[in-house]
Amino acid sequence: MLLAYSPEFVTHPYFRCASYCILFISTLYLYGGLNRQDIQSVRRRIFSASISCLLILLDTITFVRRPNAKGLSLTLLELSRVHLKLEGLGTALFVPSSVTLLLFMGPLFSEYRARYYYRASDWLRECYYTLDWRWLRTVIVAPCVEELIFRGCILFHLKRELKSCCSLCLASAGFFAVSHFHHVFEKIHAGYSWKSAIKSCTAQVLLTAFFGTYSTFIVLRTGNLLAACMVHAICNQFGLPDLRAEIHLAEMRDGARGKVLYLAILVAGLFGWMLLILPATSPHLFSNNSPFCYT
């Protein structure tokens, strides 16, 4: 990696951010291959993503560390510049993620109704078939790696150039969303046409941009990267709900009453999230004195 003695443009925040995105995505394909659902490919991608994340973090540390620092030691203050800190960790993990769950009240209710007659053996059997390498990638590795790269390292560099919460959220979300356009190549490899692949990925990129904005907002408000990791894991676990199918299922199960109840719970969850997200991420709650969380 090119470090502090490079020409000025190489250390420019936007150049650094773009190079991190390219490094992260390229390693997924150079070692992981194109079939993201193949188990061997999943294992390789977990390894390659972890390596690229480590390289990006090490490069960012060269900007974070004090000029007179010796050895490999890092102070808590230096780590906090990439939003890694232990202060208020329990609150950061629990409060924003609990409010985020309100967005999934409809799917949660549907799951509750579907599993109402589950026995303990049914739960264990489902866990056995669900907790595999793909689940590990989607719910554990991807949130941690992506948050560290995009909301830790890239956001650190963006703060060298941008000075408001709104601009930081949009810029970070932009890099995060564009980086997900690589799924076009996977879909083409799977047999999609160029047109259908781009159309499918455009919807995914727009959704990713929204989540990237939300995740950056949480990091700037709480000052804690692990809060965003937990929220990211929850969203990946649930995915984008098929509301039409779930509403139809609720109507089949409980008639018109079930449909109305599902919609009421869904809307109540959305309004609850809108009312609580600001107080739940109040900087004072997390002892966060960063000026970026107010502007």
From TrEMBL:
Under the heading InterPro entries, the entry gives: Rce1 (IPR039731), Rce1/LyrA-like_dom (IPR003675)
**Keyword Endoplasmic reticulum applies:** yes
Record keywords: Cytoplasm included? no
Top EC class for this record: hydrolase
Please, one GO biological process term?
CAAX-box protein processing
Q: Where in the cell is it found?
A: Endoplasmic reticulum membrane
Q: Where are the transmembrane segments?
A: 13-34, 46-64, 89-109, 165-185, 197-220, 260-280
In short, the EC number is 3.4.26.1
Q: Which reaction does it catalyse?
A: Hydrolyzes the peptide bond -P2-(S-farnesyl or geranylgeranyl)C-P1'-P2'-P3'-COOH where P1' and P2' are amino acids with aliphatic sidechains and P3' is any C-terminal residue
Could you tell me the superkingdom of the organism this chain comes from? Eukaryota
Q: Which residues form the CAAX prenyl protease 2/Lysostaphin resistance protein A-like domain?
A: 133-236
Q: Which residues form a coiled coil?
A: none
The principal location of this protein is endoplasmic reticulum
- Listed GO molecular functions? metalloendopeptidase activity
Keyword annotations from UniProtKB, A to Z: Endoplasmic reticulum, Hydrolase, Membrane, Protease, Transmembrane, Transmembrane helix
Q: How does it sit in the membrane?
A: Multi-pass membrane protein
Q: Can you name a GO cellular component term?
A: endoplasmic reticulum membrane
Q: Name one Pfam family in it.
A: Rce1-like
Family stated for the protein in its record: Belongs to the peptidase U48 family.
User: Which protein, by its recorded name, is this?
Assistant: CAAX prenyl protease 2
Gene from which this protein is expressed: FACE2
